[in-house]
Amino acid sequence: MITALTLCFLPAPILLIVSILAGILAGMAVGSVPGIFRAKFQTNEVIVAIMLNYICTLFTSWLVNGPFKTEGSTAQTEMLSEEIWFGKLLPRTQLTSALFLLIATAVILYIFLWKTSAGYQLRAVGANLSASKTAGIRVNLYLIMSMT
Fold this sequence. Notes:
The protein is mainly alpha-helical. It has a domain at about 1-85. Helices cover about 70% and strands about 0% of the residues. It is globular and about 60 Å long.
C-alpha cells in the first residue's frame, strides 16, 4: 500500500510488481523478528509474534491516521488506482487473477521444501531440533529462515 501510494508515477504493471515485492520484503522483515528472538534468546515465537501483531497494528493505524490520511475526518488513505488491482476472474465474486500467483507460489514452495537440500534441512530442524544439531545443521539459520 505504501509503495503503491508513493510510487504512483510508475506504469501500472511495474507498480503492481514493485508493490508485491515490497510486501514480500516487509513480510520477511516482520516475520524474521520472532525467528531471530527464537534463535538468539530461545523465546517462544508464538508469544513474540502475537506481541508483534500489536506493534504492526499500531504502525498501520499511525500510517492511516497520519502521513497517508486523506482529507476529511474519516481515517482512510487514497484509493489505489484500479489499474493495479488484480483482474476479476468471475464477475460478482472476489476471485481474482491473484489465484495464479498463489498457485505459482505454492509450486515454488513445494519444490524448495521437497526437492532442495535447504528445504530438507529446514524440515529437519522443524521436526527435531536436537537431532538437527547433532547432524551438523546450522539450526539458528534455519529457525530464522523458517519465520522469514
